[in-house]
Amino acid sequence: MKTVFSPLHAGHAGNFELISGAIVPAFEKPSRAEFIKARVESEKLGPILPPETHDLATAKQVHTSDYIDFLPTVWPLWEESGRTGSALPFTWPTRGLRGDVRPQTIDALLGFYSFDGGASFVKGTWEAIKSSYDVALTAAALVKGGETSAFALCRPPGHHAGAAFMGGYCYINNAAVAAQWFRDHGARCVSILDVDYHHGNGTQEIFYSRGDVQVLNLHGDPMTEYPFFLGHADERGAGAGEGFNVNYPLPFGTAWDAWNASLDDACAKLAAYAPDVVVVSLGVDTFEKDPISKFKLKSADYPKIGRRIAKLGLPTLFVMEGGYAVEEIGINAVGVLTGFEDR
Ligand SMILES: NCCCCCC(=O)NO
Ligand SMILES: [Zn+2]
C-alpha cells in the first residue's frame, strides 16, 4: 500500500488547546505523524510519496468559501493584533446570539468559525492544514488511478471540521474532501466509514442532506463524550440524505466484541449501499491506552478492523484522524493497513 505524507505538518507545533478548564499543550502534536511514518517504514508497508499541490476548489465544494479563505488569514491577523502564542477563540455564537453577521476582529472570527477551543493556530498551522489537504487528494488520486488502497497520512486531522467551522484539532475535512473528489472524478457514490473514537460531526454535517455520500460513524456516545452535541442514533440524514447517515454511539469501556458488532453492521449497510469507493476516517483513539478516550480496543484488534474492511472488496482510501497514545499510534494505525492487506 502506498502512503502519502508531507513534512509540512511539523509547522503545526507548540500550540495550545482549551480542555478541562485549562490551556494545555495540544494533544495533537507532530510526534503522532512521525511515529506513524516510522511504523510504515519499519513494517515495509510500501512507498511514502510527497503530495501533489492542489488548488482549494475541492475544499470549497464541501466547505464554504469564506471559511476556507479565512484560514490562511488567521495567523497574520493574530500577529497584526499584537499577539503571539496560540490563536484561540474565547467567545462563540451559541443559541440566542447571531451567527449570520460576520464580525470584524480576529478574536470574534475565530469563534465565528469554530465550535470549541481545540483548533488553535500558530505560525505554521495554515501550511500544515494545506499540506494535509494535498495529502488526502494525492492519495485519492492513487486509488482512482487503480491502487486497491492508499494511506493519506494526514496531519492535522479533519473529521470534526464542518462546512463552515473548525474544532477538535480539525480545520479542513480531509475525508470529506476526498469523498467529494471521488464524486467529481466518476464515483457514482461514496461511503465514509469513521472508526475514530469521537463522532465525526463535521463529516456528518457536510453530507447530511446528500444521498451520494453515505456516512457511517462508530464513536463514544455523545451523551457523555466529545463532541457531545451530535452523533446520536436517531440522526439518519435529511431530505435526499435520509437513511444515508448511520451513527453507532457506544458507551465508555466498549471493548472489541461490542465494537466489532457495530463495525459488522456498518459494513453490511455499506455493502448494501454498494459505493464505488470507501473512505475510512482512520482514528485509533479507540485504543485502551489512549489518554483522552475511553474504549478498550487492544493493539491486536486493529489488524482485524483492516481485514473486515478488506472483505468489502472495494477500493479504499484510509485518511488519518485521531489517536494520542503516541508510543502505540503507529502500531495501531499501520496494524489496520497490514490487516487490510492480510499480511
Ligand atoms: N479537545 C477535545 C477533544 C478533541 C478530540 C479530537 C479527536 O480525537 N477527534 O477524533
Ligand atoms: Zn478522535
From TrEMBL:
At the top level of its lineage, which domain of life is listed? Bacteria
For biological process, the GO terms are: epigenetic regulation of gene expression
- Example GO molecular function: histone deacetylase activity
What are the record keywords, sorted?
Answer: Hydrolase, Metal-binding, Zinc
- InterPro entries from the xrefs? HDACs (IPR000286), His_deacetylse_dom (IPR023801), His_deacetylse_dom_sf (IPR037138), Ureohydrolase_dom_sf (IPR023696)
Q: Which Pfam families match?
A: Hist_deacetyl
Q: Which cofactor does it need?
A: Zn(2+)
Under Gene3D superfamilies, the record lists:
Histone deacetylase domain
Using the record's annotation, list all stretches that form the Histone deacetylase domain. Answer: 28-330
Tell whether Hydrolase is among the UniProt keywords: yes
PANTHER family according to UniProt: HISTONE DEACETYLASE 8, HISTONE DEACETYLASE HDAC1-RELATED
Its family remark reads: Belongs to the histone deacetylase family.
| Record-given protein name | Acetylpolyamine amidohydrolase
